[in-house]
Amino acid sequence: MSFGGPNNPYGPQQGQQPGYGYPTAPPVAYGGTPVMTTMPGTVSVGRVLLWVIVPLQLIGVALFAFVAGVVRRASNAGVENDASFEKIKEYSSGVLWAMVVFALAWAVFAAVLALKFSDGGNRVRITAIVFGVITAMLGIYPFVVVGLLHTVLGILIAVFAGNANGTAWFNRVRQ
Fold first, then answer.
1. Maximum alpha-carbon separation in the chain
2. Per the domain annotation, does 27 fall within a domain?
3. Domain span at 81
4. In this predicted model, what pLDDT tens digit does every residue of 21-33 receive, in sequence order?
5. Rounded to an integer, what distance in angstroms lies between the CA atom of residue 57 and that of residue 36?
6. How far apart are the C-alpha atoms of 165 and 42, rounded to whole Å?
7. Domain for residue 38, yes or no?
8. Does pTM surpass 0.85?
9. Using an 8 Å Cβ cutoff, are 153 and 49 in contact?
10. Which helix (H) or strand (E) element contains residue 6?
11. How many domains does the chain have?
12. What tens digit of pLDDT does each residue of 47-63 get?
């Protein structure tokens, strides 16, 4: 009886050729759980939504600055009794400039938070959730198209950072 045949089931086992069989496993951390190497889709969408908020805030900065300039020129010219000035005169130019600063700071905060999504930890996740909730609440007051858009974006950011994928991504083991 010869064991040398390649099709003999009782013969010696032949080694696997490279590239055949099961694929290699992802890297494993000390706890035995696989290390997450790519950002889940919902977390990535949350980061994109933060980047969408940045230009919207910059548009708001430009609009608030324009209106603050109009209010300052109108008050200096003494047209406070003009009918077209009625809606704007509720706000002083100082309040409008404070809104400019706040909108600019909110845009910078959204950009920094979006940049931290790739390497941030649980604090970034919690900050993103709080950012999303505050953005949604601030978008409710001037419930126009931009306010509605901020409300929806804020809710989605909070949901995507707070779901199971977000928790797994921000609490992952770093190499």
1. 114
2. no
3. 45-170
4. 556 665 555 655 6
5. 33
6. 7
7. no
8. no
9. yes
10. none
11. 1
12. 999 999 999 899 989 98
